[in-house]
Amino acid sequence: MHMQFKRVSVIGLGYIGLPTAAVFASRGIDVIGVDINQRAIDTINSGSIHIVEPDLDIVVHGVVNTGKLRATLTPEPSDAFLIAVPTPFRETPEGGSREPDLSYIQAAAESIAPVLEKGNLVILESTSPVGATEKLSAWLQRERPDLTFPHDKGEAADIRVAHCPERVLPGCVLQELVANDRIIGGMTPACSEAAVELYRIFVKGDCIVTTARTAEMAKLTENSFRDVNIAFANELSMICDRLKINVWELIRLANRHPRVNILNPGPGVGGHCIAVDPWFIVSSCPEEARLIAQARNINDAKPEHVIGQAMAAANAFKEPVIACLGLAFKANIDDLRESPALQIVDALADTDVGEIIAVEPNISELPPALAEKSVTFLPLQQALERANVVVVLVDHQEFKAIDRSYIAAKVVIDTRGIFG
Ligand code: SAJ
To answer: 297: domain range?
Structure first.
């Protein structure tokens, strides 16, 4: 069967949904973007964007102008529906543990169900625990008993369902959407075939077919791999602090070995993916996922270690002034969400250790939580002039360019190794 995708709906117009919708539209597909946020819809329909991502504004502006992308609150009939909504974590009802919150996926399923038609393709792009795509199929079935779905009727089903996880790096989304290989996890071979046909519209990388469950696990595995490897680097950095060894030099040396490639230690692991996704594996298999859980704990404990180092350094001065360089969760972005740097500055501000200065070249004012705690927000140069303790929390390009003579007389805690 050869499917034709003339009209595609994207449910959830966030960091993944909006660029995906815009790229489909730029290839001539009629795209309907659906979101529950009226302000986001208005912004997009006026040709602007509500998130920060290089070049996305230009693409959205273009496709809204040509009428190829239109945003709305209510789903409309389409050939394919692509779900890109958040899958956050929540406390388990009994408390004490965490579990993935699939309520946004369920709500998306309930919103598209009324307009589904025989022959449609539904794709889940949201990062999901293993089994979520089968649940999606069952939720759609519950709303539309008149149609058949693959969890029940397999290849013969009226609707095709697949999991195709997004794997793009924030900051490089437009390039990576097109260039990266794509894992296509259909609930049946026919579901995969339809999904490959859809992604072929703009994906230049390989589209690799597997099952929905393997695709779900592949995405979680990629981010857990990175988390576990960063935990190894972070554990090494704490061992080296105790043993008075420069961890950066150590890693450079060890990485000379042809089969060793240690990642970079840091102040902790932030962002919405690597610090979250491993928990999806742990919550499915708590008894087996011991290393993955331990890596999460090690990375989550790293900010505490840095706070201790900063306090110890400050205590050596009569009037400590601590300049904290960076608030974002990684280099050269303005994203402060789930940022270990922010967590460290916030915790230091709760102590009476001394004056706390924050420097973040990618934002124009402090987030309210820090402003309330009398953290001083200064440009880099002024902060360095005032401080006797400098804590490097993010490896922004501006910090890498610091003239060493400015910091020679200060106590420096370099969590990112920018000074080697
Ligand atoms: N970090 C370190 N040391 C390192 C590398 C990173 O401490 O050696 C820290 C960063 O500073 C940051 C955190 O880890 O706080 C995560 O940053 P990242 O750049 O590794 O990843 P994200 O969260 O921006 O995006 C990841 C990517 N996944 C992988 O690289 C395996 C991206 O491809 C995924 O699409 C994204 O998660 C996602 O959506 O899951």
So the answer is: 244-414
pLDDT digits (tens, 9 = 90+) for 245-270: 999 999 999 999 999 999 999 999 99
**C-alpha to C-alpha distance for 66 and 52, rounded to whole angstroms:** 22
Q: In Å, how far from its chain's centre is CA 156?
A: 36
- Give bridge partners of residue 324 from the DSSP assignment: 358, 391
Would the CB of 176 count as within 6 Å of ligand 1? no
Regarding whether 249 and 165 lie in a shared domain, the answer is no
Catalytic residue among 164, 191, 273, 324: 273
Model confidence at 220: pLDDT above 50: yes
pLDDT higher than threshold 80 for residue 124: yes
Q: Parallel, antiparallel, or unpaired for β 80-83 and 121-124?
A: parallel
Shared domain for 167 and 297, answered yes or no, is no
Q: d(Cα 212, Cα 184) in Å, to the nearest integer?
A: 8
In 133-206 the beta strands, taken as DSSP E runs, fall at 160-163, 182-186
151: left (phi over 0), alpha (psi -120 to 50) or beta: alpha
CA angle 64–67–73, rounded 5-degree value: 70
Nearest to 387 by CA among 407, 417, 413, 370: 407
Contact 82, 33 (CB under 8 A): no
Question: Could you tell me if the CB of 141 is within 6 A of ligand 1?
Answer: no
Structure confidence by residue, pLDDT tens digits, 373-403: 989 999 999 999 999 999 999 999 999 999 9
Q: Structural domain tally of the chain?
A: 2
Q: What is the largest CA-CA distance in the chain?
A: 77
Any atom of ligand 1 within 6 Å of the Cβ of 170? yes
| Cβ atoms < 10 Å from Cβ of 401 | 9
Average pLDDT, the chain: 96
Q: Which residues pair with 83 in a beta bridge?
A: 11, 124
Considering the domain architecture, whether residues 272 and 125 belong to the same structural domain is answered as no
Q: Please check whether residue 317 lies inside any domain of the structure.
A: yes
Q: Which of 154, 106, 152 has its CA nearest to residue 126? A: 106
